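Chapter summary example.
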Amino acid sequence: MSDRSENRQELAQFLRSRRARISPQEAGLPTGVHRRTKGLRREEVAVLAGLSPTWYTYLEQARDIHPSPQVLDSLARVLGLSEDERAYIHRLAFGQGPAEAPYGVDESAEKLVSQVVEVAGHGPFPLYAGNRYGDVVAWNRAAADWYTDFGALPRPRRNILWWMLTEPEARKRLVNWADDTLDVIARLRLAYATRTADRRMQELVGDLKSASADFRGWWHEQHVRGQHQRTRTLDVPGLGRRAFRLVVASVVDSPAHSLVIHLPLTEETGTGAS
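The structure predicted for these 274 residues follows.
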């Protein structure tokens, strides 16, 4: 199946799932006594978005049609999509953006981010570098202390999602394990939208589905989130409990990688620790 065909299938499935979660009342429509449809009907979405019901049906059937950006924005409004979800359907419809790097692992780029972490990571707080697949390619001593010794993991499993979903220590150390893990899955879903022909991405998703019932359930629900600051609280024997503000910084010379910086917070105030 081609990259574009995969994206059409993903878009169709996503629209169906989001249509099912919007009630007629939320859309300002009357509810009939004998209504059986969960959520909105296709015809109702089409009318509210100013589209032909037949054309919208074709879109949900993953036929080879070409929605405009304006049409997608109209559907996002009707379906009550978040800004991240709106960006997601645009990615699915229009494919890979110009900032995307070629598929595969760039060893020189990994060496670059490793040097950045080595120079910047001497402090007491975690710092690690990851790629679009969630692979942890470099980390400082504090990241090993608070998370795990990534160097002791087999390279194919040196991945933040693999650790979160399959290692028992992750559920103990991450105070809000479910929310933290779902956030990473939702961001992987956004990356997946422009890399459906990427064999590594396909294998990663397939392997995680096989390994984790939690992943299978959340992936099926099609959660989508962009990269935003968030708080993550860890509780580690010998180190105690501490909340961090996670700030993700892009590496200009290696757009496939980013640095995950942990700024310490005080749990009482939610502000940076002095």
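To summarize the output: The radius of gyration is 21 Å.
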